[in-house]
Every structure is written in C-alpha cells, then in structure tokens.
Design brief:
134 residues, mainly alpha, 6 helices, 81% helix, 0% strand, transmembrane, transmembrane helix, membrane
Length: 134
C-alpha cells in the first residue's frame, strides 16, 4: 500500500489548515460567522499549531515503513484525528449545512478509511511482493 501518498496528502491538507488557523484566525471566524473574540482567535491559533504539528509529523514520516505494527502511533494518531473530526463535521452538518463543511466531511471520511486500511495492512508482505516483481 502506498503510504507515502497518504502521509504526503494529509500533511499538505493539515499544513494548509494549520497555516490558515495560525495566521488568519480573524478572517476564518468572519467566514464562519463567529464573533472574533480574543478567546476565539487564540483557540483558532492553538488549533492551527496542532494542525501544523501533525503536518510536520506526517511529512517527515512519509518515507518510513508504515502499517501493521510499524509506526503504529503515527497511524493511530492520524486515524483518531480523522474519525473525531469526521463525526464533529457530521454533527455540524446535521444542524446547519455549509458547503465547506460538506467537502471537509468527505475528505476526512476518505482519510479515515485510508488510515484504517493502512493500519490493518502488512507493509512487509507488500514490500516482498514489489521486490519479487522486479
């Protein structure tokens, strides 16, 4: 299974969300219709920092052997993040539909399924198959 694509794409997505949360929290709160109170802005910046941390973790782990027991904390952390965000977005969509939330819900569902598949895969059997084909 191609984990490099998974970790690279999730790193890019989380990096973009992290940069946005860190540097333009006031604009994000205006787009979402939230009052830009100081507590809201600092929470958006903290969340942006968390996203940037996850992005860096995924980016620097993308070439490592991942799946099964290998790098399990990285996969479980990403899986937990994707599942929790997916359910939070589902709950928000049930209350009020917003196009951005609908797109993010589908993206997070895709990542949750992909991280689940990677967690249940055996990277060594995939590696031996690719070596025998050469």
């Amino acid at each position: 299974m191609k984990t490099k694509w998974l970790l690279s794409s999730s790193a890019v997505l989380m990096g973009l969300l992290g940069l946005a949360g860190t540097f333009i929290p006031e604009e994000i709160s205006n787009i979402l219709g939230i009052d830009p109170l100081p507590i809201t802005l600092i929470l958006l910046q903290i969340i942006g920092g968390l996203y940037l941390g996850f992005a860096m973790l995924n980016w620097f782990t993308r070439s490592a052997l991942i799946g099964g027991i290998y790098n399990k904390p990285v996969i479980l952390g990403n899986l937990m993040h994707c599942v929790v965000v997916f359910f939070a977005l589902i709950r928000q969509l049930a209350e009020q539909f917003h196009f951005i939330f609908a797109i993010l819900t589908l993206v997070y569902l895709g990542f949750a399924v992909w991280f689940t598949l990677v967690m249940r895969s055996n990277p060594l059997s995939n590696q031996s198959k690719s070596l025998s084909n050469t």
